[in-house]
């Protein structure tokens, strides 16, 4: 079921960004949100936090029933301020822990369960509607197609796989390049069975950042937003 949070309904302009792992969704969306004065919602963090919670409570991730049952005790909180990112489960700050490879390895098992997706999409809908800013940049895998298909700006952020890998391995420092490559492409393969984030749906703009540096990519997103959402531009 689509959850529509467009300007007309809630007064919040949604910028929807999808793409594969390492394409730059989180970093570019966060920077674009700061430039625009918008909120920022990282939806992948919720799937990662639920995976963290499931591991923490020794839930069998191969059992969809057990994963669905774990949603009852899942007290999730995320900051929507792009200048002050943070994720909590109950009283525990999991901002760093959810990035660990042990979470990346299992998160797709969580994401493939339809009840989990439905539950989290409802949660995202509430966060978007109540974000308290004129707009919000929301990034993930199914934002342009399921979470906010009516968003005024919808972007598929891509980059060649080799480029995505080298960006991610630079970020993780010590991780073995080969192990990382295997994990990242295995995760994309698993995730693609659930939602298609490799091809742009109708009306979605593809932004290929393979040959763009970080600032150029953020500029391109901000420009796309200015084209369709009436906002004051900062004086230069
Ligand atoms: N256009 C770009 N050029 C160079 N580096 C980039 C670009 N976009 C993102 N990055 C870097 O690549 C890494 C992965 O980006 P990230 O935002 O975590 O991707 P995703 O959220 O899609 O997995 C980060 O270190 C980020 O700073
Ligand atoms: N909208 C979303 C966002 C993330 N996810 C899942 O959550 C995982 C982590 O997402 P992420 O955005 O943090 O991943 P990266 O691209 O940053 O590595 C993905 O591998 C998907 O399994 C999803 O299914 N749908």
UniProtKB/TrEMBL annotation:
Enzyme class, first EC level, given as a word: transferase
Listed GO biological process terms: pyrimidine nucleotide metabolic process
Molecular function terms from GO: ATP binding; dCMP kinase activity
Any one GO CC term of the record: cytoplasm
Gene3D superfamilies per UniProt: P-loop containing nucleotide triphosphate hydrolases
Keyword GTP-binding attributed: no
Alphabetized UniProt keyword annotations: ATP-binding, Cytoplasm, Kinase, Nucleotide-binding, Transferase
Family: Belongs to the cytidylate kinase family. Type 1 subfamily.
Matches recorded under NCBIfam families: cmk
UniProt protein name: Cytidylate kinase
Highest classification ranks of the organism: Bacteria, Bacillati, Actinomycetota, Actinomycetes, Micrococcales
